[in-house]
Amino acid sequence: MKTPAMKRWMTFGWTAALCLTACLQSDMSFADEYYEVRTIVLGDKGDAAAVDQYLEKALIPALERQNIGPVGVFAPKANSETKEGSVFVIIPFTELGQMESSRAALAEDSEYQKAAADYLGRDAKSPPYARISSELLTAMECWPKTVVPDGTLENDERVYELRLYESANERLGDLKVEMFNAGEVPIFLDSGIQPIFIGQALVGPRMPSLTYLTVYKNEAAREKAWDAFRAHPDWKVLSKNPRYGGTVSRIDKFVLSAKPYSQM
């Protein structure tokens, strides 16, 4: 049987725990943005049209009603290093808790449920995709918010590049982030490489790592920009700084085109 004193201590304990959790969340949620990078692997039996219908007509409009966006949706181009049959979805959040609250809001959104009915109503014998893989990123100091330059969506020839840099351990991963923050992005911009977002992985299958998305007017502009970057005198100095030696153990590069309904 719990005495009044025990009840008071239990109440105090729960209150203290809740306050501590709130303080920790406040301290941790310091970034301007967070990003979910969602990779939808269609597989041999996937239904690309159903996935497009769901994203365009159900998910993105529902996220817009939650004031979440811009949402980017991309497919690999023929010269990409990734296998064909994947769809990349980029969802920005203004705080960590928004990712969870967004899922709850979708469950209560009747418009979303109606628009997504065919997609969500499929059984195990007719899935629209093989599997979804996601990672959660935090924006970095060098590029704290999503930027979609004016006129980007009107250019049908635009090309994107998604890069993921892995590091051998957490110390080296943090040093690669420091390297970006120390001057890599100005070299990007000077070379014609336009970032849309840059983030360090908080949760994901390829940690420690950072991921960024860039956009170019066309394929020729992408190749020219990277040639300019490699030849840039500031990059030659930064890349030879011994502090940043060996910070990247693997690079994955995906050359992408935007879906017609993409907001990036």
Automatic annotation (TrEMBL):
Ranges of residues in domain NIPSNAP: 160-263
Domain of life: Bacteria
InterPro entries per record: Dimeric_a/b-barrel, NIPSNAP
Keywords on record: Signal
Signal listed as a keyword: yes
Residues making up the signal peptide according to the UniProt record: 1-31
Entry protein name: NIPSNAP family containing protein
Organism annotation: Rhodopirellula baltica SH28
Lineage of the organism: Bacteria, Pseudomonadati, Planctomycetota, Planctomycetia, Pirellulales
